[in-house]
Structures are given as structure tokens and as C-alpha cells.
Design goal:
single chain; mainly alpha; 5 helices; elongated
């Protein structure tokens, strides 16, 4: 769940690729660019992007990202392929985890369990 090295770097890139579009679209909406989403949804999108970027609660944040992107596809239908790709990024983060360079790894990282023989 918390691989280091090149696989950990790949998961970091995956988290960044999933977080940046979510944060940008939500922050542009909050700045006054007209969009059909309400302010609460935009705030949730930006917050979810931040959680993905730092790697905190990654399975929950990935699920929320997937729900947001599928909701955008169903409600507006604009750029369906791009939003479908972003939804799949969220699903892959749920299945793969955050990687070694994340807050989740620091909080819930690998633990060493010593079982003494009797």
C-alpha cells in the first residue's frame, strides 16, 4: 500500500495528475467564472484536490473524486472523455493507495510486528 522508490514516485505523479485538474476547476469556479455547480460543490472539489495532493485519506478522496467526475458527466455531458479519464484516475488511486510520499504513509505506514517464538 505504501511502496517507495519508482512505484512510489509513480503514485505521487498519479495523485498530482488527479488533484491538479480538480483543484483548478474548483478554484476557477470560486473566483467567479460562471459554472453550473454551487459554491459548496466547488469547495468540496478544491478540498478533495488538496487531500489527493498531500495524500491524506486517499481512498476516501479518490472515491469522492470519482463521484464528482461521474456527476459532472451525468449532469452536463461536456468533455465526457476527459471527465471519464479523471474518474478512472480516482478509481485507480482507491485501488493502489497513496504511495510512500504521502501523509497517509506517515500516519498509517508499514508497521513491524515481532512475533516471539515460545
Amino acid at each position: 500500500m505504501f511502496p517507495g522508490g519508482w512505484p512510489g514516485a509513480g503514485l505521487l505523479v498519479l495523485r498530482v495528475a488527479a488533484a491538479i485538474p480538480l483543484m483548478l476547476s474548483g478554484s476557477l469556479d470560486l473566483r467567479g467564472v460562471p459554472h453550473s455547480l454551487g459554491y459548496a460543490t466547488q469547495f468540496i472539489a478544491v478540498s478533495d484536490g488538496v487531500l489527493l495532493l498531500v495524500g491524506l485519506w486517499t481512498p476516501v478522496a479518490g472515491t469522492l473524486k470519482t463521484v464528482i467526475e461521474v456527476w459532472i458527466i451525468l449532469s452536463s455531458g461536456d468533455a465526457m472523455v476527459a471527465h471519464l479519464l479523471r474518474a478512472m484516475l480516482g478509481v485507480s488511486l482507491v485501488m493502489l493507495g497513496p504511495g510512500a510520499w504521502s501523509v497517509d504513509a506517515r500516519l498509517f505506514g508499514r508497521k513491524r510486528i515481532d512475533i516471539r517464538s515460545r
